[in-house]
Amino acid sequence: MARAIWSGSIGFGLVNVPVGLYSATEDKTVHFNQFEKGTDDRVRNKRVNEDTGKEVKYSDIVKGYDLGDGRHVIVTPDELEEVEPGRSSTIEITDFVEAADIDPVHYRRSYYLAPASDDAARPYGLLLQAMEKAGRIGIATLVMRNKQYLAAIRPHDRVLVLETMYFGDEVRDPADELPSIPRKAKFSDKDLKTAIGLIEALTTEWKPENYADTYRDRVLQLVKAKAKGREVVTDDDAEPEAEVLDLMEALRRSVDAAKSRKGAGNTETGKLKTRKAEDEKPKKKTATKKTAAKKTAAKETAAKKPAAKKTAAKKGTKRSARKAS
After folding, report:
1. Same domain assignment for residues 129 and 95
2. Same structural domain, 153 and 86
């Protein structure tokens, strides 16, 4: 069972909801230790004085702020403790905003908020349902591990999610930071229609389970294979260079490829329907041919009957003539 990494309450107005904070995600990156090449000896980092080369005890280390001109301001742990945010056990919601107003670039990390007791379940559920119906996200502040966070609280499924956020001055302005951003260009309706067609061809239902870290899987396979003493062979063939195409030609080819891929990825039901349709088409053609054959046969029979009657009449006339003679 997951353990709360922070306990307190959500405050909005005069209502307090006791909650626990739980990590919503986990880092599955493959981590390695450092070893000296050709040995099984671990390599560890030490805190060393740059001038003397001697190791420094952790208790003798203080923090310094670089002023940018070669000077530093040294501050002690006690001095930092004096200006730390006061300990708080309340996530105070100060504002509610439209969900669409927050750009995802402001989000840092996700946590789940859960009621801390059975008595807290009812006010928790009320806040959750009210936020769902209102379509709003709560903006709050949180002090955790001696650090102050800006946070957004939003309803998701049957739980409240807390997103720690960057403060406004921590998000870079792309217009100032990225000089290579192109100016707004004008495109013809045809060009835009083709680009939109590609987007629509690649549009699908969001299913997180459809995506996986294939690099991590390959690294783990490599580690397991080497642990069993197997030789690992890699494919050294370089990827062929992409063909240079003009923008519209690339878009058109992309649309065609996306449609082909989407068609190949139909569900089994879709495949069965397609097969049935394909099976029915020849049958219909055969039935048409049979009907046509029947009609032709009927015509030929109808055409033969009068001819037979005429022949019989001629034979009868010849017989009468013979008798008369």
Report:
1. yes
2. yes
The amino acid sitting at 254 is: S
Residue 11 sits in the same domain as residue 158: yes
d(CA 154, CA 128): 8
Same domain, 205 and 166: no
Range of the domain at 196: 189-235+244-264
71 and 193 in a single domain? The answer is no
Q: For residues 102 and 223, state if they share a domain.
A: no
* CATH code at position 151: 2.40.290.10
CA dihedral 136, 137, 141, 145 (to 10 degrees): 150
Nearest one of 20, 145, 155 to 91, comparing CA atoms: 20
Report d(CA 25, CA 71) in Å as an integer.
40
Q: What is the residue-level pLDDT of the chain in tens, covering all 325 positions?
A: 788 999 999 998 888 999 999 999 998 999 999 999 999 999 999 999 999 999 999 888 889 999 988 899 999 878 888 887 766 789 999 999 998 899 999 999 999 999 999 999 999 999 999 999 999 999 999 988 888 999 999 999 899 999 999 999 999 998 888 888 877 778 889 889 988 988 888 888 989 898 888 889 989 989 998 888 876 666 555 555 556 557 777 777 887 887 777 766 654 444 444 444 444 444 444 444 444 444 444 444 444 444 444 444 444 444 444 444 3
Distance in angstroms (rounded) separating the CA atoms of residues 254 and 100: 30
Number of structural domains the chain divides into: 2
The answer to whether the CB of 153 falls within 8 A of the CB of 162 is yes
Query: Are 205 and 262 within 8 A, CB to CB?
Result: no
Name the amino acid, one letter, at 307.
Answer: A
